[in-house]
Known about the structure:
Blueprint: H1 4-16, H2 21-42
Amino acid sequence: MIDTGDIDVFLGLDVGKGEHHTQALLCLARRPADILFAMLRDGTFYEPQPAESG
C-alpha cells in the first residue's frame, strides 16, 4: 500500500516541474497503470523491492 505522504511528494515534484495539478495527478495514475500493463503483458508478478535504508 502506498503511503499518502509518498503521493504528496510525487505530486509536489510534478507540480514543481511546471505541470498543472490535474496533469500531475494523471502522471501519478499512469505510473501504476504502466506497471500493471507490463505485468499482464509479460505474465509476471509484482515483487516489491526492499526500501533502501540510509
